[in-house]
Each structure stands twice: as structure tokens, then as C-alpha cells.
Amino acid sequence: MVVRNDASVGEKARLIYEEKLRVALEKKHLNQFVAIEPESGEYFLGQTLTDAIAASRAKYPDRLTHVIRVGHNAAIQFGMQVQ
Which of 14, 20, 62, 78 is 20 to 30 A away from residue 41, measured at CA? Predict the structure, then answer.
């Protein structure tokens, strides 16, 4: 069942990323997108945001996932980066 307002989806997924996935994914999949399904702990990689979401939806069509861009603070960024 999809719960649209469940902030814990993102919190749980980020915890999984930090504790279990970060080191391995940043070595081999930097700049790719990872969709993390927090109930199962499974993750789905994609070259694009759409690819990662599509892979997660194919297996878990009724669950929310949280997408992170590997090696970044956010999946997408708007505006210019100030140096």
C-alpha cells in the first residue's frame, strides 16, 4: 500500500544508504541514481532517475521508494552551484 505522506520512507532509505550502501555504490556507481525500497532494503540502480524508479516500480508497484544520486546530497539540483 502506498502512503503518500510518509516521511519515514526517506528517513529509512537514507539510513540504509548510509549504513549499508554508500561505500560500495560510491566506488562503482558514482553519479548514478539509486531507488531504495525501505521495507525490503532492496535497491535499484539506474543511469537516470527514471530508470531507477522504473526498476523499483517493476518489482514493487505499490510501494514508495526514495531516490538518491550516488555521491550527492540530492537526486536533482536546481539552479547554479556557487563556488
Answer: 78
